[in-house]
Design brief:
Its cofactor is FAD. The protein has 488 residues and is α/β, with parallel strands linked by helices. It has 16 helices and 21 strands. Helix 6 runs antiparallel to helix 7. The mean pLDDT is 95. The protein binds flavin-adenine dinucleotide (FAD).
Length: 488
Amino acid sequence: QHPCDIVPGTFDSWMQGATSIDVVVVGGGASGLSAMKQFQGGKRKVNSVVLLEAQDYLGGRVKTVRTSIEATGKTVLTEDGAEWVHGGRTTDLYRLAKKLNGLAPDTKTWNIFFNRNNGAKASPLGYNIRRNLMKQCETKKIITPYFQKPDKGFGQCFIDRFDQTYKKLKAPAAEKEAWYFYNEQMVNKDQGTDTWLNISARDALNFRGADQWDQWKNGYDTLINYITKSIENSKLKLNSPVCRIHWDNESTDRVLVVTKDGTSYLAKHVLITVSIGYLKEHRELFTPELPTTYTKLLEDVHLGVADKIQLGWDKPWWGNKYLDLTMIWTEKNLPAEQEWLYGIMEFLSIHQYPEMIQAFITGKYAKLMEDLPEETVKSDIMQLLNSVMSKTLQKKGLSAVPEPIFFRRTTWGLHEWSYGSYNSYVSPVGADNGLKTRQPLAKSVKNSYNKQVLIWGGEALSTTRYGAVDGAMAVGKTMAIKIKNLLA
Ligand SMILES: Cc1cc2nc3c(=O)[nH]c(=O)nc-3n(C[C@H](O)[C@H](O)[C@H](O)COP(=O)(O)OP(=O)(O)OC[C@H]3O[C@@H](n4cnc5c(N)ncnc54)[C@H](O)[C@@H]3O)c2cc1C
């Protein structure tokens, strides 16, 4: 069941009742909103435009949550989606964040732990393997052989170099397998993938600027609110899922766009910024079906799944600083129903709160977690924390981890307007099929009148910044300029 399954009306009634318009933007995330800002600015403004957003808020995968905590009377700010201003210091996003004085100063001091899952100390030497291998596998000379046809997958580079690098680090042999697994999971965490072998080695090399950790001090929605302010309110329609797009019609060279309640528009161009996950899941959005040249491309790119599990207390029980806990799985003896926990590799304090912590979980483990009731996830994760922090609890004279006063987990894989989280990644097969950059995905679709009617937007189209907010913004801006040129 999906909200778009049933739409009142018929093709004829939608045609008759349609509002003529130059542009419809589908989706009000960072990409769609940046396009709208571009339409509203500059010398050649586009006024005949509307943005249709399925949900009741703008921002999409930028989703700041404010929760009032009864026990403390405080409101805490967490991010369900984007959290860091990645992308380097020369992007529009970074410049804007500076201009708005929106960045949180990075003055955190950390209580650092390296623990085995049973609570014993792990050797920090093994930890260095990740940075070491990342450095190697992101070096052009080293990774290039991995994407000579056939593309062997980004993970293969790590697999080939693990043994030798681990030996050089002189890390304990007893932890070797656990650090290997950690390393694999951390690559999967960055990409949102099930397996590091399904990421094209070439595509991974295209990516730029993930090594930056600035945050928004008052929430990522500072960005969304700022962009939205520059857009006329009446042009932004919330709770308006686009359910049908008739893009090649006999009677008109325009596109018929229909929302869930049967409201319709006849547009010269439609800018589609929904996630790749949504596009793959809902091909029936388009009538006629999209050209096979485009659907074939969709087969070769996937949206990763990454979720967050967040817990909070009134004060940090592990010490008085921010928590930085790296854990490795030296004992893998969980019952089948708890195997999702193997996806947890670290707990870190979040945002401005030392007493609030977060774990990422990705790929197949995230999907297992999403299928479980929230209460089960909470009790499983508490069991894990009790085990991995058992020595610290003893030292602090605590019999168990105190009951959290805040708990939240995301379910981006099941999300009916996203079907995933971040990093729309190209598979090795996709790279071999010709997706060497994201350019083919950005090729607009023409109708029988030879008009470029479907224009693609969203993070997935950025070759160097896919999966990130600044990439989504840049694509939105570029596509709006393209549409302005088409309208001129
Ligand atoms: C857990 C998580 C952590 C992340 N961390 C970071 C980070 O630290 N830094 C970073 O830069 N990026 C991060 N990202 C990625 C970043 O959030 C996204 O790349 C970016 O926000 C995508 O923007 P977008 O506009 O392309 O897509 P979206 O934000 O997905 O916007 C698409 C919009 O389309 C709407 N929509 C879908 N279907 C329809 C329909 N049929 N009709 C109308 N509307 C529809 C959706 O509701 C949505 O609002 C993270 C994402 C997640 C989920």
